[in-house]
Predict the 3D structure of the following.
Amino acid sequence: MAPGHERVLIGVVLTTLLTVTSGASQKFFPDDPIEAAPPPLPVTAPLVRDVNQIYDFLHNSRRPERRPGPPAGATNTLGNVPDSPWFTNRHGRRPMTREELQRGPGDSAAPTPPFTVIGGKEGVQPGFRIMDSEGRTYYIKMDPVKYPEMATAAEVIVSKFLYAIGYNTPENYIVEANLSDFTVARDAMLDSRRMTWGDFCLLLNKTQTSAGKFRLAASLEIPGKSLGPFRFEGTRTDDPNDTVNHEDRRDLRGLFVFAGWLNHTDVKANNTLDVLVQDNGVPHIRHYLIDFSSALGSDGTWPKDARFGHEFVLPTPSEVLRKILGLGLFPTEWEKAKFPDITAVGNFEAAGFDPDNWKSNYPNPAFLSRLPDDEFWGAKTVMTFSDDDIRAIAETGQYSDPDVVDYLTRTLAARRDRIGRTYFAKVLPLDNFRVEGGELQFDDLAFKYGLAPAQQYTPGWFYLDNATGQRTPLLDGAAFELPKQILDAAPGAYFSAIIHRSDDVQKSVAVDLRKTATGVEVVGIERTW
């Protein structure tokens, strides 16, 4: 969010009998709610950084409990995330076509043989790097021998889901290749020594073959200068555009919801990448999520442990105490989970999925600081994916058995609906506010998606002082028709409608309106819970 646009708000019980203030003394609204962040400032001296995985694990594991943070930054006055080098609104803003969903970040750069192996690949999962006949570089991953299609499909499918949501992800492809398609470059290195043809064949022996072919996941090298990973807290001191602490960014807090949906438990600093790029001649940093082979039911080299997604790798003190006192006699829900006997899926199901208590492999500062409105933003985006949308992306895993696509579609649809029910219940699930026909209108998302019955909502109307944030009740107006004071107001006047449900006065949505020369427009939204 541009400086001066961020709104500091205090949640209170709202009625039409009280004057309501935000506690802030600043101009609330720009001329228009921002849809995109300002053009980036040039990054003149970027640093190449590394994050030690052991340090990152131990540092973040010190504080595993929820610690809700301040109101999210990197949002506009409507509570949405503007387009930026971190996030670009896609499916949630405008439904993507089936072809766009399957294309993801790109489908025109699939590797073409012959392939030259130019070195090994760092990481837990074995792999290597190749250059194709067009001179493009790819990072190659393979499936475990006993679980063909599992890890490679997860890599491709999850990258396309996250891209459709709005994140920057690599172009990932499923490739079936013959041994004769490869040669090993003379200067190829593996573990600080020269890589031989024998080394390469040993790597391929760790994957599954079918009809003499090798199934691989190929990730196109991300364009730009690699600067290493970003962390999920703090900011980059070398980036003048990085002004919001990462743990307070809505796009990183909301990633918790998407990661839970896709069971992407391995969300950590070392599965991100910052790159220096140039747009219109301005060098700036773009932020990527990478490495998705440990998502869905896969843990990369084997099926995901049933505990992952339910508990951290390092148990919390409360989990240890529960196990000690229980003497192993009271199994948890995840210990009773039933997984499909489908090797290409691994361990992935919906019955035991608890969105609010889902966990990544180890604590993530942005996830732990999330607030209900961050979760609502994530949930409303997940709910935009129809069953057909889910199926379209699941098909990009190129499974040999069509029943696998059916299972994934059903499971992700069920997890989607659990996300909607969980997070829409925490706030008033109202969105898409607009003024039409002389009244304030909106969508009840819980009702729209069939997750809850229709509810009755009541507004209270207020004058809004845009300089101080003070709200003063109007004497007129108790329904959603615009009060006469708004219709007769001069252009530039501000008003608020504070909406609550008759059976739950604690939750509310304040919708801020501005009178213009041609009508009335919605310029701000704030939620209390």
User: Anything to note?
Assistant: The chain is about 20% helix and 20% strand.
